[in-house]
Amino acid sequence: INIAVIAGVIAAMAFVLVGLLLLMLHYMYRHKGTYHTNE
Asked: What is the dihedral of CA 31, 25, 27, 11, to 10 degrees?
């Protein structure tokens, strides 16, 4: 097993997890803001 492959897989997984987390936070924050403005 190549170390570069393992590092690449870990980096890809971390990148995807961070991206999903940022998208969820952005969606929640935006949804909360629109909800407050609507009310």
From this structure: 180
Show the tokens assigned to 9: 């897989």
pLDDT score, position 12: 98
Q: What is the pLDDT of residues 1-39, one digit of tens each?
A: 899 999 999 999 999 999 999 999 998 887 766 655 555
The residues spanned by each domain of the chain are: 1-33
C-alpha to C-alpha distance for 37 and 17, rounded to whole angstroms:
30
**From residue 10, how far is each of 14, 18, 37 by CA, in Å?**
6, 12, 40
Residue 4 CA neighbour count, 13 Å, CB half: 0
